[in-house]
Write a structure and sequence with these properties.
It comes from Streptomyces globosus. By secondary structure, this protein is of the alpha/beta class. It is built from 16 helices and 20 strands. It folds into 2 domains: about 300 residues, Alpha-Beta Barrel (TIM Barrel), CATH 3.20.20; about 90 residues, no CATH class. Strands 1, 2, 3, 4, 5, 17, 18, 19 and 20 form a 9-stranded mixed β-sheet that branches. The protein has an 8-stranded parallel β-sheet with strand order 6-7-8-9-10-11-12-16, sandwiched between helices. The protein has a 3-stranded antiparallel β-sheet with strand order 13-15-14, with no helix packed on it. Helix 15 packs across helix 16.
Length: about 525
């Protein structure tokens, strides 16, 4: 054997009770579990440690981070061995030159400007190939981003797609799925994906269903219209016959305090009718996005340059302010913005770094920053509710997703802390989940959603993507004051049977690869 772990507490990802066993690894796979008499080239005393399948971050924004920082300690140190990229309807493939430039400008706040990436790919397959050629620390899967597809085929105008444009979008989604994407994402509070009608979305979801993928929408409201927005995507998925995964399924803003049970009742009713639904969430109350995302959708029509022009125009800027502060913009989920809850977490231009860590004091400050930073600023939005967070994470179809933006001077601590925070805070300290339930949420259930037949469980023959952690000490190091601090209590992480973390330190091994699911035409 290449490696034998002796006396580990095996938490196998099924949700079943933990048990003590030796686990052997050979050739990148789990070769045996039980009493293993033979030794390995390396034997590790795992007494006192839990051995679990590596965790899957079901909602990651590492699309460029994996290219400019393949070491990726932010996720490897948490025990993450697979991330799902292409989230919220906006990423870098498929695209032509025009679309790529526009998307880069629109999501600089998520991923940085990407000045050190050469962006020679234009297809989903080309992007996945680039990850493989670069070499990455952890595995990565990809969702076809519906907003990028709409920008490519229609542009950034707020109008219905013409029949030929809809056909082009269908073809782009199909091509991405055929090249290995696991599904399609949408960002229905982000331009231009938000301009899609229900009929357009259903047409694209039928393509996703035909390839056996899933739809992952950031739906139209997490605030005033949250339940209606959830109901919309549930109905769309039902109409299209498409599997549904709800992105960062939260109930935010004062209007939704204590209303998570209403969301879960909606999902339970649909699940009981046989629907294929899962969701992800992060174990924190503040949200995180770009400052520009809070603006009304009509202001972003025409793309980033058009939005900057409107912000620079006094009359248009006043119209934007009134929509945000009096009516509640769709970008702020239908809730009038509370500037005191909006904290700047990062800027694209270091010259604007003095803004970081400040709560905005009104529209004029926000406008000034948007113009100075050319829409690149990111913010924390302190609008969540702890009771809702706990209710959602208990649900039977819940999975873990960090929604972690790694870019910026003061990112949300969820980027570096989500998975140990689940294990330390919500398992050990609060008992919201048992250890075996939590590992199933973070490993076994995500692998089932992604239809990966040999990942997500500690089982003979499965890939040796594994994490060893101390259940008594595991904890997030990241905090709002120190958001990039690494976790405690996670000494070993393996990808494909190779240590990417050993004794709590990054090894330099780049064992990850792009995970492509073979498509099928089953419908």
């Amino acid at each position: 054997m290449d490696l034998v772990f002796r006396g580990a507490l095996v938490v196998d990802g099924t949700g079943g009770p933990p048990y003590t066993a030796d686990v052997a690894v050979h050739g990148g796979r789990i070769a045996g579990i039980g009493r293993i008499r033979s030794g390995g080239r390396l034997t590790v005393d795992a007494a006192g440690l839990a051995l679990a399948p590596g965790f899957t971050d079901m909602h990651a924004h590492s699309d460029l981070a994996l290219l400019h920082d393949p070491d990726h300690t932010a996720k490897a140190a948490q025990g993450v061995t697979l991330e799902v990229l292409g989230q919220d309807g906006l990423s870098y493939a498929p695209a032509d030159d025009r679309t790529l430039a526009e998307v880069r400008a629109a999501i600089t706040g998520w991923n940085g400007p990407g000045e050190d990436a050469d962006f020679t790919w234009r297809t989903v397959g080309g992007y996945l190939d680039r990850l493989d050629r670069t070499g990455i620390a952890v595995n990565a899967a990809y969702l076809v981003p519906q907003g990028t597809v709409r920008a490519y085929a229609v542009g950034w105008e707020d109008r219905p797609a013409a029949p030929a444009e809809l056909d082009r979008m269908r073809a782009l989604v199909a091509e991405g799925l055929a090249q290995g994407a696991v599904g399609m994402s949408s960002g229905l509070t982000y331009a231009p994906g938000m301009y899609a009608s229900a009929g357009e979305l259903a047409a694209l979801c039928r393509v996703v269903a035909a390839y056996g993928g899933y739809w992952c929408p950031h739906h139209r409201s997490y605030g005033r219209g949250a339940l209606d927005a959830y109901a919309e995507v549930v109905a769309l998925a039902r109409e299209a016959g498409c599997a549904l995964h709800l992105a960062h399924a939260v109930m935010n803003f004062p209007e939704n305090a204590g209303r998570a049970p209403e969301l879960l009742a909606l999902l339970d009713a649909e699940l009981d009718r046989g629907a294929d639904i899962t969701l992800d969430s992060y174990p924190y109350t503040p949200g995180c996005t770009t400052l520009a995302a809070l603006l009304p959708g009509w202001a972003a029509a025409g793309g980033p340059r058009a939005l900057l022009a409107r912000l620079a125009d006094g009359a248009e800027a006043e119209r934007i302010r009134h929509t945000m502060e009096a009516d509640g913009s769709d970008g702020c989920h239908g809730v009038p913005v509370d500037w005191s809850a909006v904290e700047v977490s990062g800027t694209a231009d270091p010259a604007n770094g003095a803004w970081v860590g400040r709560r905005l004091r009104g529209w004029e400050e926000a406008r000034r920053l948007l113009l100075a930073d050319r829409l690149g600023a990111t913010v924390l939005q302190h609008v969540g509710h702890e009771g809702n967070v706990r209710e959602v994470m208990r649900h039977r179809v819940h999975t873990g997703g960090s929604d972690g933006i790694l870019w910026g001077a003061k990112p949300h601590p969820r980027a570096y802390g989500t998975f140990p925070h689940y294990l330390g805070r919500y398992v050990r300290e609060l008992g919201v989940l048992s250890l075996e339930e939590c590992v199933a949420h973070l490993a076994g259930r995500p692998a089932a959603r992604l239809r990966l037949p040999d990942r997500g469980l500690v089982r003979a023959g499965y890939r040796a993507d594994l994490v060893l952690f101390d259940p008594e000490t595991v904890a997030a190091g990241a905090s709002y004051a120190d958001p990039r601090a690494l976790p405690a209590g996670i000494p070993h992480v393996l990808v494909d049977g190779r240590f990417v973390m050993r004794e709590g330190r990054r090894t330099g091994v780049l064992a990850g690869r792009a995970v492509r699911r073979t498509p099928f035409r089953g419908r």
